[in-house]
Amino acid sequence: MFKKTLLMLALLLAVTAASAAAAPSYAKWGAIAVKETMKKYGAEIVDYKHIGRRTVSADTAEEQFKLWIRAQGGREFGVYVYVRFDPNSETLRSVRFRESDR
User: Are 29 and 83 in contact (CB under 8 A)?
Assistant: First the structure.
């Protein structure tokens, strides 16, 4: 019984570690992009795409996302979201938005 319990615990830990390692490096910034977009537009997020990261300076990086949103009244449009942060301290610097009809 003890060996079976130990084996189940080891399996659970392995699965948990594998799922934690699978999270992409931009996941934290994507969550911020979604949260801030919902706050700004009060709209439903229909689709989400990570475009990429660029280095702005030695202490600033920027993740870019494109979100497709459906506003109240049914209007759908894209919003590019730019999340700037310090890659060393993982501190948020700013969030900018640019609307798009595509």
Answer: yes
What integer pLDDT is reported at residue 3 of this predicted model?
Answer: 43
- What does the pLDDT read at residue 9? 41
Check residue 101 and give its pLDDT.
84
Q: Kindly give, in sequence order, each residue whose CB lies less than 8 Å from that of residue 32, ignoring residues fewer than 6 positions away.
A: 83, 92, 95
Provide block-wise average pLDDT over 10 residues at a time, the chain (102 residues): 40 51 90 96 94 96 97 92 97 97 80
What is the Cα–Cα distance from 37 to 69, expressed in whole angstroms? 9
Please write down the HEC assignment for all residues of the chain: CHHHHHHHHHHHHHHHHHHHHCCCCCHHHHHHHHHHHHHHHCCEEEEEEEEEEEEEECCEEEEEEEEEEECCCCCEEEEEEEEEEECCCCEEEEEEEEEECC
Query: In the beta sheet, which residues pair with residue 49?
Result: 66
